[in-house]
């Protein structure tokens, strides 16, 4: 994977280099201007952005300059509202700047597979917004792919789309949380999607997200 690292903090760049050096090609930018110049080449699979270096306007500009690159924002003090704000600007990942090596590797795998890496609270809030928007507009047109799901899988998917957690779904259906996770794994496989957010948006937006 060709990754562009953007941070004005040399110790952060050094840490990211150490964690990502194996199996990836890395370039870096230490100023916003340099970041935009490099991003504009459009060659990067992933651009890791340090929140202290960029604001929403720069994020939007990078999204415009490098539409095929995936943006992963890392913040020294992650905040749910901040995550939602930048998600709507086009990032596909949001995490702590000092995320553990294991979690960073997991995040890159999810993002590289077409998924979205966000904190659970951010995901739940986004799902809830989509659900409330669907209820308000009444524009719900279930995707035909949902026909492949069993009645129980459809019920689990429906509860996910209403922003319930796995524990809440288990309580609602009278099953254990482990069974909910097993159903979700099967649902993701059948629908060819990678995560909870994609499933919720599929249901809440009539298949506009996959």
Q: If you had to describe this structure to a student in words, what would you say it looks like?
A:
The protein is of the alpha/beta class. Helices cover 52% and strands 12% of the residues. It is built from ten helices and five strands; from the N terminus they run βαβαβαβαβαααααα. It has a five-stranded parallel β-sheet with strand order 2-1-3-4-5, with helices on both faces. The longest helix has 18 residues, at 120-137. 32% of the residues are buried.
Task: Itemize the secondary structure elements and their pairings.
Layout: E1 2-6, H1 10-20, E2 25-29, H2 32-39, E3 46-50, H3 56-65, E4 70-75, H4 80-87, E5 93-96, H5 101-112, H6 120-137, H7 151-161, H8 166-173, H9 177-191, H10 196-204
Parallel strand pairs: 1-2, 1-3, 3-4, 4-5
Helix pairs in contact: 2-3, 4-6, 6-10, 7-9, 7-10, 8-9
Question: How would you sum up this structure in a few lines?
Answer:
This protein folds into two domains: 2-117, Response regulator (Rossmann fold, 3-Layer(aba) Sandwich); 122-204, Orthogonal Bundle (Arc Repressor Mutant, subunit A).
């Amino acid at each position: 994977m060709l990754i562009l690292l953007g941070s004005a903090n040399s110790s952060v760049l050094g840490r990211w280099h150490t964690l990502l050096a194996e199996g990836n090609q890395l370039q870096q930018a230490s100023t916003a201007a340099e970041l935009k110049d490099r991003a504009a080449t459009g060659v990067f699979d992933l651009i890791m952005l340090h929140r202290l270096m960029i604001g929403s306007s720069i994020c939007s500009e990078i999204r415009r300059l490098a539409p095929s690159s995936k943006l992963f924002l890392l913040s020294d003090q992650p905040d749910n509202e901040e995550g939602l704000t930048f998600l709507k600007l086009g990032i596909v990942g949001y995490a702590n700047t000092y995320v553990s090596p294991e979690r960073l590797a997991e995040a890159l795998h999810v993002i590289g597979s077409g998924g979205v890496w966000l904190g659970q609270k951010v995901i739940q809030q986004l799902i809830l917004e989509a659900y409330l928007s669907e209820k308000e507009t009444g524009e719900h047109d279930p995707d035909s792919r949902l026909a492949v799901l069993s009645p129980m899988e459809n019920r689990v998917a429906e509860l996910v789309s209403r922003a319930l957690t796995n524990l809440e779904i288990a309580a609602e259906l009278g099953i254990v949380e482990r069974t909910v996770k097993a159903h979700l794994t099967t649902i993701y496989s059948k629908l060819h999607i990678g995560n909870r957010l994609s499933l919720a948006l599929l249901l809440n937006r009539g298949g506009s997200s996959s």
